[in-house]
Amino acid sequence: MATKVVDLRSDTVTKPSEAMRAAMAAADVDDDVLGADPTACRFEAEMARIMGKEAALFVPSGTMANLISVLAHCDARGSEVILGHDSHIHVYEHGGISTLGGVHPRTVPNNPDGTMDVDRIVAAIRSTDGALYYPTTRLICLENTHGNSGGKCLTVEYTDKVGEVAKAHGLKLHIDGARIFNASVALGVPVDRLVRAADSVSICLSKGIGAPVGSVIVGTKAFIHKPKILRKTLGGGMRQVGVLCAAAEVGVRDTVGKLADDHRKAKVLADGLKKIKQFTVDLSSVETNMVFFDMADPRISPAKLCQALKQRNVLAMPTSSKSVRFVVHYQISDSDIQYTLKCIEEAVEEILACDAKSERCSTNGTS
Ligand SMILES: Cc1ncc(COP(=O)(O)O)c(C=O)c1O
Ligand SMILES: C[C@@H](O)[C@H](N)C(=O)O
User: Whose CA is nearest to atom 3 of ligand 2?
Assistant: First the structure.
């Protein structure tokens, strides 16, 4: 029997459910590049409806969804996008908007809650009277929930405010909504209301929603025409993609309703960590499915802890030289959470005992 692994590295690690696999096998498909795949068309129409936008486009990944969205809005040479210094687009997408799209990033500091100060966004907008020197600001990007801040939610009030700034300055607003459903559930705000101010949104199907592959870009019908061309340009035009959309349909139907439980389990995990004195965790920062915690004992490093947990079939990821991240998803059970906490306690004991032993060895002069 396969060893049970509690995989808390990310919510991207879920395996397709039996219902997803059955839907994939039974999917009615055709050539999506020719616009003929019935399952893709049905799914895209449903996602547009859910998100309150006119149109939607299925793409292979969240990275490609963000890249295509930025390039579609910034389709003139010398364009600049305002985005968070700690945003996924800026930190984890290989600078694709610049290296592939020629778009210049203008970063604004992300606050601990994932927002960027509105006055700093306004200050970052290039004035047109500096045209000889300045790129042209065309786009503002937000990220909701904000991954590197621990899955924090951007409120609808904040999002609307940034939308007003964009409109007042003739700019567009894109939301990296990889986990927008987590934000919607945690805030208790309908997802279409949460993104109303945005001109485009990218939504990951392969995270909390649990689909094996894909993201969706939503926006106006006129806007989506450009992403469709850019998707093909980037090699993302796929043929019988209904096989993948069928799984995503099941995820949207079955898994969005489980996100609140992911958030509850994350809080249980954080509460358990709080009781272990070798770690520090800010319970108020656990708003959705992510738990970031810091090492409070110099004898315990993120790498040592993750290694010791891995030996107990619990997987996690260091996020810095002093912190570790757990990401909960619907394939993590309550007993998995309790098992993880037990393994953490054992791992701490093991690391400290090993450290004490090596300490005794070094004071005794034996190596
Ligand atoms: C906030 C955010 N945006 C975009 C992405 C990119 O998605 P993908 O991994 O599908 O390229 C991720 C992570 O995967 C993410 O966490
Ligand atoms: C690391 C990042 O690319 C991924 N989106 C995650 O959160 O796991």
Answer: 92
- Name the CATH architecture for the domain at 18-254: 3-Layer(aba) Sandwich (3.40)
- The CB of 92 under 6 Å from ligand 2? The reply is yes
Amino acid 27 reads A
- Kindly compute the dihedral angle of the four CA atoms of residues 232, 235, 241, 246, in this order, to the nearest 10 degrees: -100
pTM above 0.80, yes or no: yes
Q: Is 150 in the pocket of ligand 2 (CB under 6 A)?
A: no
Reference 81, options 115, 116, 111, 125; nearest CA is: 125
Tally of residues, the chain: 367
pLDDT tens digits along 180-205: 999 999 999 999 999 999 999 999 99
Whether this model's ipTM surpasses 0.90 comes out as yes
Q: Are 196 and 158 in contact (CB under 8 A)?
A: no
Residue extents of the structural domains in the chain: 18-254, 258-363
Assigned superfamily of 258-363 = Aspartate Aminotransferase, domain 1 (3.90.1150.10)
